[in-house]
Amino acid sequence: MHNIRNIFRREFASYFATPLAFVFIVIFLVFAGIFTFFVRDFYRTGQADLAPFFTDQPWLYLFLMPALSMGLWSEERKSGSIELLMTLPVTLWQAVVGKFLAAWAFAGLTLALTFPIWITVNYLGDPDNGVIVAAYVGSFLTAGAYLAVGSILSAATRSQVIAFIFTAVVCFLLLLCGWQPLLDPLNSVLPQALVDAIASLSFMTHFNSVSKGVIDLRDLFYFGTLIAASLAATAIVLDMKKAN
What is the pTM of this model? Predict the structure, then answer.
């Protein structure tokens, strides 16, 4: 745990060593505001809740989380600093977990900075804050799932651009298989059990479930399993690249 904590601190601090972290935060906050107040027309819904804020977050993450994860390992491999990292008294899995947690914490910090929207909703009405907390938890878990998938693809290439594109494509497919406009036509040609199985693979399905205020163990298991499996795959990919 000590080694993971040291890597986490180093990586988290590195995000603020350049202006890119602040650019990322600003872009996220600006687009979250645009989707909430203009695309979803928050003030005209007549409801004191944050549903307009959370509805589009999986789609917003489709571009922002791959941008955050693309440099997790590809830049290390391109610059050769991964060899230096591997000479430190840390195991491969500790490095993978530490770097992932730093990226996830940064994403969580960015999400937490949207709290003025939460305050605004409470000022305008009497929302169910329990549902809002659950939606924030779902959003945080979804961000972690994106980053975990991105970690694998970042480890597989030296190019950040390629890592970004492949992460966005894979995450897009995982979103689509839980997108209701796609599932509705499938219901007419496939057995319901198969459609449900396809939907259960999607970020969207589990995010929507949690954001409704119900934190089900099945949703937590999905996100936990996906993140753990992705980090294990990242370590395997890095080990294979090291062997080459």
Answer: 0.90
